């Protein structure tokens, strides 16, 4: 073999990505068995709470957005727009928007500028101005294949081995494993800072300072600070005071801020979502900040389309030119994703508005309802606790595992939380991800669960089964 | 600044990507000036022969493919499929195919398996079997965001700095700059082998051996060999004997083969396209081969959709598992691109077939017509020569520049071929890319041009202006 695991890129080999790890692989096996009827389980179907993939578990796409995309996909339909409206196949507004985009150069089949359609970037500018009260330069907005691509771009740029010492990336613990995986790929060091579980997974200044000081003392060149807000997997919606503290800390230490704000529309607290970009600007700090957003979450849930954007503020223009070059090497992001970003940031205002508003309200109400049921169920169980869910699509409950569980896990050679989650899967069909995939305070155990599966009754039933399982598990391994 | 060009990833800074370099940037300026009427040029419009972006210069997408995609994009239209067929808005076959894909799980809005929809990978298997007479394992087929992503995956895996010495990637010269850029990004060494211009840009065994021996003597760990067939920018369609020689050489030297075969439908020779995978298999060699294909070329030209696939044959299963992990970190390729791959490899056979066949025939006939005109024009000019175009969408004519041209270029501090191409742009509106962006034999000058712009009369007119310019240029700088 010319290429083996030993002779390939060792950073790839070392990278871990738990969201698609052993648990979901076992779930895929069970699903196949259930479909074939080749094995029996104490449940009829799996309930997938392991991944933020809303449309795979019942979320319905927004009609207006999909109509516009269908028309741009088939220009011969757009030519017959009036007939389609008359036949009740389309809203007039969808036809109008598709024609507007077409007139601005929305050709689905052609490469776009490396950083994306300029008219979509202008629409993002408008949305950001309405949200934050400030107009960014549209040349600082890059349309990407999901938020992940923006993060990869930023992390690749940070991977400067010539400076000596490992490049450190400060990341919340628990963290979304994209960050640990990409840090490993650039041969960097994940400099974790623990979120404060007792304070609803807030960021504490003390935790930032401790983590930075420790890494620096070990020779790590700490260069960036990741903030995931609302939090994945924490489910926290950070307040303005916390974000101000974070921005000042980044300024003091000369760090690039990475603001992962893909859940900005998924908020359950009394205080609204506040962007880190707005905080940085209002404090007048020259801190470099890359802010990422995505189609995949919010009330769109368009994971499969792969669209999103990154905004680079306060960056050196020479560095930005390098970002453009990086984008150009892969030509451009997919056009359907780019156009979907335009639709995300500019909702309909005419005949498509009533249905759109109703669809959005239904999605958000369903999420809130299931978040409440999840929180109540978890906090009703002995040995499980979690703070209220402030935002995003996740909870990260803590499980106090009895000594027998650790022993049983050791016997199988797996982490105790993975053992627990695997047992939950085999007994209830509920698929969740062990906390070890996201990292956690040593000696504590958690799991990440979404509250996405629809209808709500399905999730309620799965949680009922889970509650019984949990009580049996605790008794059995006490 | 926390991040400057000096403190960022130096491999990114060193990477070059000429296809979107100074020439197209100047062209973009001119286009903006022409649109505003703020400057005058000896032409009314630019003719973009600088990039393989067919739908930006007149290629029309295939109706059947776009109908299926529009229906999957807007499932409420698919529900009304019969009504749409009756109203003449869709072919019945498009509705049937969309329903078939939907029943197999084609949910545009959800993440798919990391390597893509299994039913699309099965369709790719069917196509490969019909083409090559052998069935590959569908788990060895990865659906990607264009061919570029497959190349990036493969190159990332090859970047094994722990082995000592630079990782060498053998690449044809002239080469598509994706390869040089990605080689730089992995801190590898581009080990160029010169294509034989006198033999219509064929690969000679001598060139392979010389290049491998030289790199090895310099301490480079040569690990892979790239074959672009049909060639970009060379325009060659390699014959089976050449491919056999290449496969045997890769086997002898223990190299991974990378077969960039995105132009396999764009063939102008008497002999058909032959896949390197087929050659490797028929020789019975255990050589690892990654073969890439794309939606962006052929008769689809769906560049903006970003779809393609990579087939990994004879690879170690442990390495393949690492490839799956790499794909999973970015979740999956965009679903529209994935579905478009299915449509590419499985054309319609019922009521959509006549229109589809006509559209394909028109595209291919237009390409052949313009290839002929281009070849004739170029070979009619003193100081320009090129072999017949065997395949792909490009020609790479050689220009014998007079001494005065080199002097004038030196005065501006640009390569002589860039000076020539820039003068052509300013005088004729024809946008081509200087050969230095693709590399070439020292002391020779070339440029790459497509033959995509439609209608043919537009390209004819631009070539007429170019011929006059060329004769003037040669006289002026003699």
Quickly describe the structure.
Two copies of one chain form a homodimer. Chain A is built from 18 helices and 14 strands.
How would you characterize the overall build of this protein?
- The structure is a homodimer of 478-residue chains.
- With 478 residues, chain A is α/β, with parallel strands linked by helices.
- Chain A folds into 2 domains: 10-58 and 358-476, Aspartate Aminotransferase, domain 1; 118-345, Aspartate Aminotransferase, domain 2.
- Chain A contains 18 helices and 14 strands.
- In chain A, strands 2-8-7-6-5-3-4 form a 7-stranded mixed sheet, with helices on both faces. In chain A, strands 9, 10, 11, 13 and 14 form a 5-stranded antiparallel sheet that branches. A two-stranded parallel sheet of chain A has the order 1-12.
- In chain A, helix 11 (240-253) crosses helix 12 (276-283).
- The longest helix of chain A is centred in the C-terminal third of the chain and has 27 residues, at 353-379.
Question: Spans of chain A of 5+ residues with little confidence (pLDDT < 50)?
Answer: none
Helix and strand composition category of chain A = alpha/beta
Query: What fold name goes in the CATH topology slot of the largest domain in chain A?
Result: Aspartate Aminotransferase, domain 2
The CATH top-level class label of the largest domain in chain A: Alpha Beta
Quaternary state, please?
homodimer
Number of domains of chain A: 2
What's the number of helices of chain A?
18
Features:
homodimer; alpha/beta; Aspartate Aminotransferase, domain 1; Aspartate Aminotransferase, domain 2; seven-stranded mixed beta sheet; five-stranded antiparallel beta sheet
